[in-house]
Amino acid sequence: MKINPQHINEFNEKHIGIHRHQFDFLADTLQKNDIDVNRLVEKIGNFQIAIPSWALGTGGTRFGRFPGGGEPASLEQKLEDVGLLHALNRSCGAISLHIPWDVPENIDNIKGLASELDLKFDAVNSNTFQDQPGQKLSYKFGSLCHTDKAVRQLAIDHNKEVIQYGKDLGSKAITVWLSDGSNFPGQQNLRKALSRTLDSLKDIYSALPEDWKMFVEYKPFEPNFYSTVIPDWGTSHLLASKLGNKAFCLVDLGHHLPNTNIEQIVATLMMEEKLGGFHFNDSKYSDDDLTVGSIKPYQLFLIFNELVEGMEDKFSKNPEPAWMIDASHNVKDPLEDLLQSVEAIKIAYAQALLVDRAAMEDAREKNDVVLAQEILQGVFRTDVRPLIMQSRLKDHAALDPLSFFRDYKIREKLINERGMDSYATGL
Ligand code: LRH
Ligand code: MN
């Protein structure tokens, strides 16, 4: 379904009054601090976040899945849903495909529909953590690290096939996440597993077009619960460094052991110019894939604080990271959940842009710990939502996408169109 731009204008008309009041008040305060509000609003508007093709339906766990109806049952319908989100917030201008969950059967049709919806293709994702129907060799005991060369070759060929789909669609990166590992001490030769994985990645890397990137995603555990071949940023960095300057590390926020200082990992990977991208989500315990900013919004702000410092300070020639969401919706409407996640990311980014870096650095150099914290938390306690609403208004999006989604009964319309039992591939 397409959103009628006229409906967005009517909706914004109803909400413009309160917005103007809040925006003018904040803009006035910021201008008094010599902040270029128009530049800020423009930067916020230009910040685009890719939506995962595998998170447009209802997620679940081994204990149960509670579908909500109207799910996209084809890649075309998934593109329509991302296009719908993008029409509401003009902030989701890209989709990240997962192969073979979302094989683009007719490339030209898919590219045509994507450009109609003003969508680009962000990183494509390979999948060697599941056996496909009729697959002769199994990934049960791993893929790129497998003891059997034939299984490693099967996984290498799959990744090269994914790169080819990406090239055909106009994507410029592949994300490799490996569930490879072991469940019991002694089960795996840990060094052989890592060196075989490196050799396999080298083979895949050799198939990368000149202007492509490879993102090496790390994760400490699940589905293996004793060892994972690529468990942490250090191993991902080791592999990306040995592979070459087209290989980078991918930071999935849920892939860290409790209390890990993720913002420090981000600062270090930027200093190393090996920060390739993010899978944004939030978590209380492990890879919970919850709504971004729903559990640890301060950590998200601190991560963006390091990102903006790195991007503005020029101490790093790290390329612009890929901004992607990776979430799973067990109890929320998938599209409402994604709208909330995009909003949380924009809030953290906008707040990080407000940090007075000169005052911050001066306080740090003087070891004025209290002042440094006050500067940071002063910004974190600033309600920047009027800036984000202004950027949407400027981009002809809905001032409040979530309220628009509900007021115009989008889910109900999708259920009427697709039925209660339409099923989306993915997690
Ligand atoms: C692994 C992961 C990875 C995807 C998968 C859907 O937990 O984060 O990024 O391939 O989720
Ligand atoms: Mn991920």
Task: Describe the structure concisely.
By secondary structure, the protein is of the alpha/beta class. It has helices spanning 5-32, 37-46, 75-89, 107-116, 149-169, 190-205, 233-243, 262-271, 297-313, 334-354, 357-365, 369-380, 385-394, 401-407, 410-418; strands at 50-52, 60-61, 64-65, 94-96, 120-121, 124-125, 173-177, 181-182, 213-217, 227-228, 247-252, 275-280, 322-325.
Structure description:
The strands form 4 sheets. A 6-stranded parallel sheet has the order 6-7-9-11-12-13. Strands 1-4-5 form a 3-stranded parallel sheet, with no helix packed on it. A hairpin with a 2-residue loop joins strand 2 and strand 3. The model has no long low-confidence stretch (mean pLDDT 97). By secondary structure, it is of the alpha/beta class. It starts with a helix and ends in a 9-residue tail after the last helix. The chain has 15 helices and 13 strands. It has a single domain, classed as TIM Barrel. Bound molecules: 6-deoxy-beta-L-fructofuranose and manganese (II) ion (MN). Residues 54, 125, 177, 217, 219, 252, 279, 287, 326, 427 line the site of 6-deoxy-beta-L-fructofuranose (LRH).
Topology of helices and strands:
Blueprint: H1 5-32, H2 37-46, E1 50-52, E2 60-61, E3 64-65, H3 75-89, E4 94-96, H4 107-116, E5 120-121, E6 124-125, H5 149-169, E7 173-177, E8 181-182, H6 190-205, E9 213-217, E10 227-228, H7 233-243, E11 247-252, H8 262-271, E12 275-280, H9 297-313, E13 322-325, H10 334-354, H11 357-365, H12 369-380, H13 385-394, H14 401-407, H15 410-418
Helix pairs in contact: 1-13, 2-13, 5-6, 8-9, 9-10, 11-12
The structure holds 6-deoxy-beta-L-fructofuranose (LRH) and manganese (II) ion.
Residues 54, 125, 177, 217, 219, 252, 279, 287, 326, 427 line the site of 6-deoxy-beta-L-fructofuranose.
